[in-house]
Amino acid sequence: MKFHIVVLAGDGIGPEICAESQRVLNRIGEVFGHRFEYEPQDAGGIAIDKYDNPLPDHTLKACLTAQAVLKAPMGGPKWDKIENKKRPEAGILGLRKGLDLYANLRPVKLFKALQDASTLKPEVIEGVDMLIVRELISGIYFGISWLKSTPFFELKRDLIRFGIFPPLARRGRGSLKGLSGRGF
Question: Is residue 47 within 8 Å of residue 54, measured between CB atoms?
């Protein structure tokens, strides 16, 4: 199988992280018979320097047509003093909004071989297998306050609040254990 991936290498250690991530993906491709086609694009600080825009239109368009986006860290002290709408973080928010990304999924699982590397006691961390869902609900996340009173907002909020969320259901676990955030 062939996959088209846009690579947003970002700033600071971002390019190094992306290079190593691509090495890992390429090895996965070798083992499982996949091929990855990478398309580098600029976003974040590097895009500010080149285009005076943290998320140029051509970058977002490329991301929308790709099958996946590999994004590394963006930003750094160099861009801390510029206006908010042109900072690297604005590019990240624009990417989330443009791709309609509403949640960040962070799996947490302890592998036996790494148990001693944890700062937590073995009896506390042993057997950990959970999925942290960080909501990025577009209207709330992007500060559009009028969305809070719409039925669409209510539906999205309730789906997450009460755990009717596909990745959780696929895991076969029981329920959503806790949730906190602005507006809930």
Answer: yes
157: amino acid identity, one letter? R
H-helix or E-strand containing 129? strand 129-135
Model confidence at 27: pLDDT above 90: yes
What is the pLDDT at residue 131?
Answer: 78
Name the E strands within the chain: 2-8, 35-41, 68-71, 103-109, 129-135
CA atoms of 141 and 68, how far apart (whole Å): 22
Q: Which residues pair with 70 in a beta bridge?
A: 7
Amino acid occupying residue 173: R
Q: How far is Cα 107 from Cα 132, in angstroms, rounded to an integer? A: 6
Q: What is the pLDDT of residues 13-26, one digit of tens each?
A: 999 999 999 999 99
Residue 174 to residues 2, 113, 171, 177: CA-CA distances in angstroms? 36, 27, 9, 9
Tell me the pLDDT tens digit for each residue of 101-155. Answer: 767 777 888 888 888 888 888 888 888 877 777 766 544 544 444 444 444 445 4
Task: Please give the torsion angle defined by the CA atoms of residues 20, 23, 28 and 29, in that order, rounded to the nearest 10 degrees.
Answer: 140
